[in-house]
Amino acid sequence: MPNGINFEEYAGVRNLVIAPMTIASDGTETYGTVQPLSGVQAISGEVNESSETHYYDDMAAIVVDSEGEDTYTLTVSIPSKETRALIEGLTYDPATGALIGSKKKKGYFALGFIGGKLNGHDEYNWIYKGKFNGGAKTHNTLTDGVEATNMEYTFTSIHSGTKFTKGGNAKYLSVDDDGTCDLSSFFDSVTTPDTLTPVTPDPDAEG
What we know:
Layout: E1 10-23, E2 29-31, E3 35-36, E4 40-56, E5 59-76, H1 81-88, E6 91-93, E7 98-100, E8 109-117, E9 123-136, E10 151-157, E11 172-176, E12 181-182, E13 197-198
Antiparallel strand pairs: 1-2, 1-3, 1-8, 4-5, 5-10, 6-7, 8-9, 9-10, 9-11, 12-13
């Protein structure tokens, strides 16, 4: 067995949050207030990338890589009607608490969550720019068993228009809570590669 390999697996997920993105006329991207989306049961991600081989002089000479969107499938508890209106691009009437199926006007969001690991170190994540699709629901008749249903959304992520000093036009940030970074305010606002703060070792601490 090779030396230095850490065997890790994911187990657990929580703290699913969103932050609406506003894009100015000059392309500047800013985020609004971070807020909970709903309870989360599962998050699965899929990366869309491909490679194409080009041939010259009767042999494979160049491999051209292409990268598309990332797709996250979210299985969640039923969001509030106000949250559904926000992510689905619908209308919410605060006076009546009604969700109105108006013509959809969807915006971009950042998506954050914590993924647990069996090694005890949680993984803190921000996905910087994407849109929601889905939200189908099922209502079943009551039976003598427990057959409650939840909801599923797809979050399609692309590179941010913002070019960060670290990482350029990034899609996401993922960091473990292993003491390397200060994660106390990670979800207070959208943490970027440039605002992520390393923990400075205490020179007076015992070794």
